[in-house]
Amino acid sequence: MINNKTIKAAHLAIGSELTSGQTINTNSHYIAKFLQKNGVINTSHIVIPDNKELIKDSLDFMNKEVDWIFVYGGLGPTSDDFTRNILAEWAGVNLILDPNTWQFIQDYLKNRNYPVREFQQQQAYFPTGSTIMTNSKGTAHGFLFPWKDKTFFVLPGPPKEILSICENFLFNYIEEKTVNTNSWLTYIWNTFGKGESEVAYLIEPLIHDHKIEVGYRVHLPYVEVKISFFKHELKQHQKLIEQVDETLSNILVYKELNPLPEFFRNQLAKASEFLLLDSYSQGRIYKDLSEWTHGFQGLSFKYQNHSKNTSAAESYIKLDSAKSDKIKAEVKLNNKVIHLDLNLTPVIKLPPERQIFFV
User: Fold this and answer.
1) Domain check: are 167 and 225 in the same one?
2) Is residue 51 within 8 Å of residue 34, measured between CB atoms?
3) What rounded mean pLDDT belongs to the chain?
4) CATH number for the domain including 95?
5) By CB neighbour count within 10 A (0-12 exposed, 13-18 middle, 19+ buried), where does 164 fall?
6) Above 90 in pLDDT, residue 84?
7) Taking 50 as the threshold, does the pLDDT of residue 194 lie above it?
8) Most buried of 40, 214, 272, 282, CB within 10 angstroms?
9) In which band, very low, low, confident or very high, does the pLDDT at 220 lie, cut at 50, 70 and 90?
10) Cα torsion for 45, 48, 50, 54, to the nearest 10°?
């Protein structure tokens, strides 16, 4: 049974390295995408320096607007890591030492031949009532802190450590808490072959009588269409979804999430080296693949553009553009070779991503 609750979330990233431009904030982007997938509405993203008063002001603002507040950074052992202290002070609760976490920190450091300093113990303190979220990739555990009718998710700054917490706890928690809520649903179509205004010209007459949120986004070479509404409204908008499917069928590349990242992550999961020889996409395939396989341990990338080299590396993918209507691809992963001939439509020359999708 669906209840009437729709969860709203906000994101607060803390760190002077973020506001100065030294480091890009990828953490809230990563979490927000998962929340969106599970029907949570992301209302705001705020980035601030290591400033205690700005943290309090940001918490005041977010506390009025949302149900879940995600806080990133400031959980380490140094003097500028004071997120937990400011949150506890703001909420009017005490920080409590967790002996198990302190033991974990000591063991983690000793096992890597690092000295254990007394000041590192600050990472083992948590606001009263918190649930500790284990970080297997560092010494700063995150914590879930329920306060009044809000829930705070406080996470370390390094992306690989957030990934660890997501895999060990956070994503399962989000899925469990959103399964029966009145989620915010978003349907996505990615098209190729028409400009944004022409795609809108096709869609706008269909949505005229529907109370929905619609959006368009250009991310070359695609134009994306998004339609959003609440889960309890699905039945009344089902016909619209079918109409959009039919209207965009001739220019549709993929619907919902891009299937290619998961495809390549599966293909490359055991590869130790990846060599891309590309004489077709002008670097676009390499750019996408480097993002899709982000976080792979031990996977090295090599790239040669417009290469005629056909020698085989231990693991490589080779894409050559012929002067015909076919793209020939050879995929070799861990000595297993697959040869492919990919036909192109005579009407729309599909982008490289679509060609690879049919592998």
Assistant:
1) no
2) no
3) 80
4) 3.40.980.10
5) buried
6) yes
7) yes
8) 40
9) confident
10) -100
The residues, any chain, with a CB within 8 Å of residue 123's CB and separated by 6 or more, are 75, 76, 77, 81, 101, 105, 139, 140, 141
Nearest to 98 by CA among 116, 121, 75: 121
CA 153 to chain centre: 16
Same domain, 96 and 174: yes
Dihedral of the CA atoms 155, 160, 161, 164 (nearest 10)?
100
Q: What is the CATH number of the domain that holds 230?
A: 3.30.70.2860
Measured in whole angstroms, how far is the alpha carbon of residue 55 from the centre of its chain?
24
DSSP 202: H
The Cα angle at residue 254 between residues 248 and 257, in degrees rounded to 5:
125
Interacting residues of 329 by C-beta distance below 8 A, sequence separation 6+: 317, 318, 319, 320, 339, 340, 342, 355, 356, 359
How far apart CA 2 and CA 25 sit, in angstroms, is 34
Tokens found for residue 210: 């529907």
Query: How many residues are there in the chain?
Result: 359
The residue among 133, 154, 178 that closes a domain is 178
Element (H, E) at 57: helix 52-65
What's the pLDDT at 331? 40
User: What is residue 262's three-state secondary structure?
Assistant: helix
- Residues with Cβ < 8 Å from 16, sequence gap 6 or more? 49, 50, 80
The pTM assigned to this predicted structure is: 0.69
Q: What is the pLDDT of residues 337-348, one digit of tens each?
A: 443 333 322 223
